[in-house]
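can u pls check wat happens w/ iron/sulfur cluster
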Amino acid sequence: MTATSRVDLPLLPLGRGSDPASERGVDCPGDLPPASDPALVERARAAKQALGDRVFVLGHHYQRDEVIEFADVTGDSFKLAKDAAARPDAEFIVFCGVHFMAESADILTSSAQQVVLPDLAAGCSMADMARLAQVEDAWDALVDAGVADRVVPVTYMNSSADIKAFCGRHGGTVCTSSNARTALDWALAQHGPDTKVLFLPDQHLGRNTAVLELGMSLEDCVVWNPHRPDGGLRPEQVRDARMLLWQGHCSVHGRFTGEVVDRIRAEVPYVQVLVHPECRHEVVTRADLVGSTEFIIRQVEAAPPGTVWAIGTELNLVRRLAAAHPEQRIMFLDKTVCFCSTMNRIDLPHLVRSLESLAAGRVENVIEVDPATAEWATVALERMLSLPG
Ligand code: 13P
Ligand code: SF4
């Protein structure tokens, strides 16, 4: 196999510097209203009202309360991708979420619509763990190993548009935490029983879905380390694996541990542990219920009063669920885990600036995927949207 080439990974402070190919942080110019401005809520309301149906505000479940208040719809990344496409009449989509979600919204909406991300530094550290040059190197290594014609690349929605386009070009698809099982079932049927999946960029979602939902063993899964030649794998490991898991993870969900689940069970009687599949395998195997953000919300909404929950997902959502369901006892799985710092970059001052700029006729912070990337990313996204369920 070939050696992996080195790929630059600039470490830019969030919101400063410039690296348009990265989710890691870019300049975010423009005047921002101070967070202490007591009129912010009124300003957001007035700007949104002035824009009327011209604007459609999408809010991911991990966004702050102050932002969710102005969202026309809320959802996980799967639901928001579909919702974005369902409002062709809106001139502007203001995406309160992170960069890869806004890119998907741009791809799925018409060219007459513009997608705005209120803070361009709202990227995703997981998405940054798979860069196109690294994935192309990995693919070349799989070609040299003689297995690439049996490999189907599947990327989690949490990846940049060029990675989605790579999957589209190579016969693969996109998945979200809501439909990962269906997407893997589809992918594994593409080249008969010897099919392998290259799963990007979240090793945990790939492993948890393969083992817990498709009945594979942990030995069927190997981890491709993009920083090592040939992924750090021996040829026989690549030949025998069914799942080639990219070495990426979520910096929030990856922090929950099996130990913390054991501790909460010992300390809290009748607790039900409910976690997102981006958590490590040792966490999901100890949990009572595992599922996407929408799944987590549905479980809580359907539970009887008095249910005790320890929830392992982003803190903004857990707090909102706890506030909306005082009849249940809802706690955060691990109090040492923080908010998603990039999701949290979208705050009321950034939203107000975006809405007021649009109302004044200035379209700032537009997310626009180049046409060649968009063409192939659309192929991968449409394959996903046509999957059953
Ligand atoms: P979902 O929205 O698919 O549940 O993903 C969670 C997440 O980490 C989004 O960044
Ligand atoms: Fe990325 Fe994790 Fe934050 Fe989602 S929660 S945006 S996957 S770092």
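The chain has three domains: 30-123+342-369, 127-249, 253-332.
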